[in-house]
Specification:
The protein is mainly alpha-helical. The protein has a domain at 20-186: Butyryl-CoA Dehydrogenase, subunit A, domain 3 (Up-down Bundle), CATH 1.20.140. It contains 24 helices and five strands. The strands form two sheets. Strands 3-5-4 form a three-stranded mixed sheet, with helices on both faces. A two-stranded antiparallel ribbon has the order 1-2. A hairpin with a 5-residue loop joins strand 1 (203-207) and strand 2. Helix 3 (68-101) packs antiparallel against helix 4 (106-135), helix 13 runs parallel beside helix 24 and helix 17 packs antiparallel against helix 18.
């Protein structure tokens, strides 16, 4: 079925995004010009990086006066590298956007590999420069990018470079660093590409309630997990898992290779001090281990809240326990969004716009600009990759939102979530590019904040319209779903990845072993709150197969609870909140997460009491849902 035919049958689905402002096509002159520009920059950077690399071994003795020529060469190299990464990043984002909507696009796949190769060449060229910056004395480093630096353009490099300097014990020799960079495109990255190619083209056979079966892509089958028909949800879940089982050897090979690569690299980097499986993730998340331990400890103490939410949902559905196919389901009394109907795309965008404008008029205007510019993808069609995301083109700094939309309240919430990310990127236009790279932990603050803003807005609208009963129950259902997701499902993902990292050194794990690890992880966190566990989740969940980030899980729970603290500030500050919120978001790319929390919230997130206070706010939501569910079900 093509997109036009599908649109006629699914009028609420979203539009195709318009990427022409970035590049009109892969064979367009603009795309080719930028590709040539990256190659030209590489031709200059590679020999320059080679020369800088000759000084890496003695970098700890560099002097800003006697080595002034090297200082200047490093400055020129850094600015050229930033330009190359900006252009290359835009090319990569464009290719990824095309691959997301059409997993069979052969030219996009070819160019993705080509661009990854160029990215690896940049990493290789920059290896010597990175070692010089990491090992240079403070005086040399301060002269390079400190306040007294002659070139203000380099000031924005200081934060990220300072963080890399902390990793000195993990750095390898120049030859080893270059070797790893050279091997990555056909090693680590290639396994992630294989997963994307498989999931973008595989077909799921879904039994239909009226008889027969329909073959569809993974994204379409996944969207059925949010439909009101429980029989259809179970059929979609089983169809997805059958497709995972059919490709189980491929998926297990991918996961083993990614985990094995990471562990081998950590072993190489453990010469001076041991590098643990979480160290890379903590560095990328910009948090310390005490903060992660405090978060996970609070989640473990609070997991019963998520289980209570699931049990109350089951009572409302009239079943003893929910199945794993029910965890994304809409409220049973509502087949679509508010008022028991599917929400057309334009109406959904309008709702999000008004919800954002209630927080800050500038946020509402931003949603209008996103819609007018065609920067949102929401079609429901075969070939699309599952999930949703927000991306930014580094060159233009324009954000784009990707989702599959069919009008449910959860999909409307997903749209708000991704537009929250987009707003975060928008306010960072005023920040130097090198200071706009925020970690995933803080990224999820803006997105989950946006979901909270949408929920409050819908609740107030329902109350004002005299529809507080049904609409209130549906919104409370969404709150309960969030509690189960962030207090149970996300930690179960973290549990699985920890167990995988512990088991992988003994050898590759087969599909049965991986299913066993996932089953044990779900049992640890879900307990008896479900009728069964999703043991193929390790194969169907994209996040486990992403090569750019490990432990792509706990930051969601971090952002959920952290955003509750931010949202509480909205009530405290009143009309002063928009300015304070923008200030917080702008600091996310140039501070550690602990520093952002201390400066903007006045809290210490390395202490459990902060996270437990957030869980206390969740308990209020769960208790409210339990009361509403009991009333609606007659219990």
């Amino acid at each position: 079925m093509n997109a036009t035919q599908d649109s006629a049958k699914t009028p609420v689905q979203g539009p195709a995004w318009n990427l022409d402002e970035e590049y009109p096509a892969l064979d367009s002159p603009r795309f080719r010009e930028d590709l040539d520009a990256v190659k030209d920059l590489l031709a200059r950077l590679e020999p320059a990086g080679e020369l800088i690399g000759t000084r890496a071994a003695g970098a700890s003795a560099l002097d800003p006066v006697t080595d002034a020529a090297l200082l200047a060469a490093c400055g020129s190299f850094a600015l050229g590298l930033e330009e190359a990464r900006t252009i290359l990043g835009s090319l990569q984002v464009y290719v990824n956007c095309l691959s997301s909507v059409d997993g069979s696009d052969a030219e996009a796949k070819r160019l993705r590999g080509l661009l990854q190769g160029l990215d690896a060449r940049l990493d290789t060229a920059a290896a010597g420069y990175a070692l010089v910056m990491a090992h240079a004395p403070d005086a040399f480093f301060d002269a390079f990018c400190g306040p007294a630096c002659a070139d203000p353009a380099l000031h924005g490099h200081r934060f990220l470079l300072s963080r890399e300097r902390r990793l000195r014990p993990r750095l390898l020799s120049l030859d080893m660093e270059r070797t790893l960079s050279t091997m990555a495109p056909d090693g680590l990255a290639a396994w992630g590409n294989l997963y994307t190619n498989l999931t973008g083209t595989l077909r799921c056979t879904v039994a239909q309630p009226g008889g027969g079966a329909t073959a569809m892509g993974l994204a379409s089958a996944s969207s059925l997990l949010k439909r009101p028909d429980r029989t259809l949800r179970e059929a979609a879940w089983r169809g997805i898992n059958e497709a995972m089982a059919a490709h189980q050897e491929s998926f297990s090979s991918i996961l083993n290779a990614i985990s094995g690569w990471r562990q081998a690299e950590a072993g190489l980097r453990s010469r001076v001090e041991p590098v643990g499986c979480l160290d890379e993730s903590l560095h990328m998340s910009r948090i310390g281990r005490p903060t992660l331990d405090a978060l996970m400890g609070a989640l473990r103490q609070s997991r019963e809240l998520g289980r209570r939410a699931l049990r109350a949902q089951a009572r409302l559905c009239g079943v003893e326990r929910l199945g794993p196919w029910d965890i994304l389901a809409p409220a049973p009394a509502s087949p679509g969004g508010p008022a028991g109907r599917a929400i057309p795309w334009d109406e959904g965008v309008s709702i999000v716009r008004r919800a954002f404008a209630a927080v800050d008029p500038a946020m509402g205007e931003f949603v209008d600009r996103m819609a007018a510019a065609g920067r949102m993808e929401g079609r429901d069609m075969d070939g699309k990759r599952p999930g949703a995301y927000c991306t930014r083109f580094p060159k233009s700094r324009n954000p784009y939102v990707y989702t599959t939309y069919r009008g449910s309240l959860s999909e409307l919430s997903t749209l708000a979530h991704e537009l929250g990310h987009a707003w975060h990127g928008e306010v960072l236009r005023a920040v130097p590019r090198m200071e706009s790279r925020y970690p995933m932990t803080l990224a999820e603050t803006a997105s989950t904040f946006a979901e909270a803003a949408l929920g409050d807005f819908l609740a107030s609208e329902a109350a004002a319209g005299g529809d507080a009963g049904a609409a209130g129950l549906e919104l409370a259902w969404s709150d309960a779903q969030d509690a189960a997701t962030f207090l149970v499902n996300i930690p179960a993902r973290f549990e699985f990845e920890c167990r995988l990292r512990e088991a992988r050194p003994s050898g590759p794990l087969g599909p049965d072993a991986l299913c066993g690890l996932m089953r044990a992880s779900w049992e640890e966190w879900y307990g008896d709150s479900l009728s069964g566990y999703d043991e193929w989740y390790w194969a169907s969940k994209l996040h486990f197969h992403m090569t750019g980030t490990s432990f792509y899980n706990y930051p969601y729970s971090f952002g959920y609870l952290f955003s509750l603290g931010v949202y509480a500030r909205r009530r405290e500050l009143g009309p002063r909140f928009p300015e304070a919120y923008v200030g917080l978001l702008r600091d996310t790319g140039r501070m550690e997460a602990e520093e952002v929390a201390a400066r903007h919230l006045g809290v210490d997130i390395s202490r459990p009491d902060f996270w437990l206070a957030g869980a206390g706010m969740v308990e209020e939501k769960v208790s409210r849902f339990e009361r509403l569910a009991a009333g609606a079900s007659g219990h």
